[in-house]
Amino acid sequence: MRTLNQGVVALVLAILATAVQAHPEGPDDPLPSWNDGATKQAILKFVADATTEGGPRLVSPSERIAVFDNDGTLWSEQPIYFQLAYALDQVKAMAPEHPEWKTTEPFKSLLAGDVKGALAQGNKAMLDIIGATHTGMTTEEFSKTVTEWAATAKHPKSGHLYTEMVYQPMLELLTYLRTYGFKTYIVSGGGIEFMRPWVEQTYGIPPEQVVGSSGVTKFEMRPTGPVLVKEAKVEFVDDGPGKPVGINHFIGRRPIMAFGNSDGDQEMLQWTAARNGSRFIGIVHHTDAKREWAYDRQSHIGKLDKALDEAMAKGWTVVDMQKDWKRIYPYDP
Amino acid sequence: MRTLNQGVVALVLAILATAVQAHPEGPDDPLPSWNDGATKQAILKFVADATTEGGPRLVSPSERIAVFDNDGTLWSEQPIYFQLAYALDQVKAMAPEHPEWKTTEPFKSLLAGDVKGALAQGNKAMLDIIGATHTGMTTEEFSKTVTEWAATAKHPKSGHLYTEMVYQPMLELLTYLRTYGFKTYIVSGGGIEFMRPWVEQTYGIPPEQVVGSSGVTKFEMRPTGPVLVKEAKVEFVDDGPGKPVGINHFIGRRPIMAFGNSDGDQEMLQWTAARNGSRFIGIVHHTDAKREWAYDRQSHIGKLDKALDEAMAKGWTVVDMQKDWKRIYPYDP
Fold first, then answer.
1. Chain B residues closer than 8 Å to A207 by CB
2. pLDDT tens digit string along B192-221?
3. Which of A14, A305, A327, B164 could be a cystine partner for A297, CB 3.0 to 4.6 Å?
4. Best to test chain B binding among A185, A234, A248 (most B CBs inside 10 Å)
5. Which residues of A touch B208 (CB under 8 A)?
6. Residue range B31-79, pLDDT digits in tens
7. Average pLDDT over residues A35-45
8. What is the residue-averaged pLDDT of chain A?
9. How would residue A27 be classed by pLDDT, with cut points 50, 70 and 90?
10. What confidence score (pLDDT) does residue A313 get?
């Protein structure tokens, strides 16, 4: 065993600090899938300002917290939220063990292929579907099922894995931020346990940096050892006004950068915008019917109406997917 | 602006990895306040094993999660939990605005100096005290009050700041672990909002690595901007079986090291011990009536009974404060 040479470590950290302080552009463009323009420039300037030693807008490394909504901000959310697609796939997979579903709604409609009819039955139907597929098992059993689904299930339109339908420009942004000492978090209305099994591999975001909706879990000592059981009881809804609450609860600091795409993100964006000092507020606007989807004020999924008005009134950065993004998905040419 | 030289970064990271891979001992002892002996050796061996590239017990950096109880594990908890001392100090400070407390229990007894009498009134009295001092304000107002208290309030016995009554050997352990790529977390029955304002400065643990008990908070848009208001409603109790639940909720991975000091930590220790692969389970045993306090099976605070039996049955590491620690507090000679 060698002695830890603290001098070497200090030297190395100093070199590293200098290296990451340099601000990339040109051939080493950190955001190659973003078209040149005001949006890209705003991002580059914000990061340069926040990380320039001695500059007036320097933000200490520990305060460099950036939060991202997931559905519609980091990956697609059409024609239905991907977590709902998981639930529907699971109903089919679990049906052989549940003969009673043949005569019980909403499962009866679902198994007959009538997804629209099943979902039209309202909130109770939705809770029954989520309850059947997300509760009554241990956290490890659930995580295993999600992992298998994420590795195999394919989107009906693109034919790609759901986890491949992530936005290449946002992947570049996440990496770029982390290079400059930001901690990147997901703050999503989606289930925290649903996201954690695949976000590290997909986004480079570790499970401990995921904030999401949750159900109650309960500790149980079984003969085989301790387990946590997912109960059919909602604990926290990380959406709308729940997002700043979730950020405060899990992170305990106010972010300096927040990105969303819908009215469900508005309070998170307001909370970040009210920070003293540097902050960056971004909205992904779905304007590309050809390469992705185009929707905003009238959409049932990812409705963007009041938050878009506020963004325009306050000068938040609105990403125009069609104009600002050279490429949408990593598999795009 | 210079171009980010990724080659330099990669090189520097490689050097850094080599440097921290070296295992310190001798004159560069990372744990100078720990007496030589089985306990210290067990810690050093665990960390060396978990971080030796190519070794059979290597744990990947992202899995190096270490969790620590706070009261009685990182700082003292006698004669009353320090958070309760905060609440009592606040009752006195707030009394001028609450003339009704002169005739309302438990405040009447408290303000007359009869702490024991006030606390003897049971759970309802305790909730009234916590409610009056921990709720009905914004998260930022609460944080400010805690910060002021932490910077000035002194322990009745030692005359030192409460935040100075932290265990020097544990501070060294936290630093040592972080040097080897561990993420150190607090997992405490104490209030998450009570700990976050001072833990970073005191332990080097950032607010986002604190798990604790919480009340419900609510987002409100005020004319001055958005706030989060602390409501008089318990949300989560991070104690006993709540600790593995809290770990799963906040961190989403199982720790490889867990340290506690009481039966309230038992389920957290069991949950960590049930991990596949390397793990370290530690208990701080308060055996030093002279330099700190001596208590275990019969104590009302920090009772250590069943967890001590389990530790002995299963070979968990029990730290004998009196024998294993050269120094207790940073201010000790």
1. 251-253
2. 999 999 999 999 999 999 999 999 999 999
3. A305
4. A248
5. 65, 183, 250-253
6. 999 999 999 999 999 999 999 999 999 999 999 999 999 999 999 999 9
7. 98
8. 93
9. low
10. 98
Identify each DSSP E strand in chain B by its residue range. Answer: 65-68, 183-191, 210-222, 225-236, 257-260, 280-285, 317-320
Contact B9, A19 (CB under 8 A): yes
Beta carbon pairs, A and B, within 8 Å: 149
CB-based contact B200:B239 (threshold 8 Å): no
Q: How confident is the model at residue B122 (pLDDT cuts 50, 70, 90)?
A: confident
Nearest Cα residue to A244 out of B194, B186, B139, B238:
B139
Q: Do B19 and A30 touch (CB under 8 A)?
A: no
Find tokens 């000091």 and name the residue: B261
pLDDT band per the 50, 70, 90 thresholds, residue B123: confident
Give the residue from chain B lying closest to A219, CA to CA: B241
pLDDT at B228 over 90: yes
Chain A CB within 8 Å of residue B228 CB: yes
The residues, ordered by sequence, that sit 6+ positions from B181 with a Cβ below 8 Å of its Cβ are B20, B51, B61, B64
Which residue, chain included where needed, has tokens 């050796």? B41
Q: Which is nearest to A185 in space by CA: A169, A199, A167?
A: A199
Interface contact flag, A251 B30, Cβ < 8 Å: no
d(Cα B166, Cα B70) in Å, to the nearest integer? 9
B1, B172, B177, B178: which to substitute to probe chain A, counting the most A Cβ within 10 Å? B1
- pLDDT of A331 higher than 80: yes
For A48, name the nearest residue in chain B, comparing CA atoms only: B1
DSSP secondary structure letter of residue B181: T
pTM as predicted? 0.91
Distance of CA A39 to the CA centre of its chain: 20
Interface with B, mutate which of A219, A224, A228, A265 (most B CBs under 10 A): A219
Q: Using CA atoms, how far apart are residues A104 and A138, in angstroms rounded to an integer?
A: 25
Quick check: B28 contacting A, CB < 8 Å? Answer: yes
Q: Exposure pattern of A282-297 as b/e (b: 16+ CB <10 Å)?
A: bbbbbbbeeebbebbe
Query: Per the CB < 8 Å rule, is A16 touching B19?
Result: no
Handedness of CA A262, A267, A268, A273 (dihedral sign): positive
